[in-house]
Amino acid sequence: MSELQRFPAEWEPQSAVLIAWPHEGTDWAERLAQVEQTYVALVAAVTRFQQALVCVAGPSLRERAARLLGSAGVDLARVRFFEVEYDDTWLRDSGPITLRDGAGFRLLDFHFTAWGGKFEAGLDDQLVGKLHAAGVFGAATHQRIDFALEGGGIETDGQGSLLSTWRCLHERHPDKSREEITAILEKALAQSRTLWLEHGYLEGDDTDAHIDTLARFAAPDAIVFQACDDPADGHYHELTAMAGEIAALRTRDGQPYRLFPLPWAKPILDDGRRLAASYANFLIINGAVLMPAYGDPADGAAAAVLAAAFPGREIVPVNCRPLIWQNGSLHCVTMQLPEGLLA
Question: Which among 18, 68, 123, 283 could disulfide-bond with 335, CB atoms 3.0 to 4.6 Å apart, if both were Cys?
Fold first, then answer.
């Protein structure tokens, strides 16, 4: 790991959370009112603790978003809007991956292919560059990297350990070996080791098993992961195998990780299609953890697990049932920005 560059963990101090407001030109059009209520709840939760930086596709959308947020009692002094075009709102994957670089910052702008070319992503792939060119990130360095990678596909402990799934990265780069991909990730992200999981998937997931739907660092010695305790469920064998892999992982000093298995929600169907309702898709912010809630009896149990994994942080549920209709959840639509990054 470079002594000058470091990839901070999500639990480190933040300046803001970056999101993009849904609109009729995105895939949310059919259920826009529902998903906007989730975004209102999300921004309301974030702004209790820190700023929200909200991308909007134009002045009319800015006015609409501000009106909805204001009507919900959101402190608009903690909301900054930025007008920019985008294809969709999955900022975890199209937003910047930020390294601390000496006394400043480096914005890593990986090639965003919409999860292997599944959707149109031309505007989303330009988002980081446009935000940087507009001066949103002050004096931060912008580094374009010609390698397909999404922020949801990687987890760091802030101390040089990277966690990812081989399924996802191999799908993006079928022509590269594990050694080649590992070397590219560790060099670009200033990491000194990579922990690969071979198992884990969620039905209704477009991302080819993003790690942020499956397993997350809660501390350098702790991992929270999505478990499945129903042998009749189609996910049982895969997630049980993943749990075994995680139990076999070791910290940098050779100790087993402290493990926090999350409960399994009952199947949520939409016109017969199973939706990917993962509690692992939480967002850590200053003083809190925002938890995806699905209106399931397991919501309360998931909150209790997260409270144990993140002592001293408030657990704030956000209704994410509208989000999983488009195959993602709370972490997928957000990107945290480290403290000091914003101009």
Answer: 18
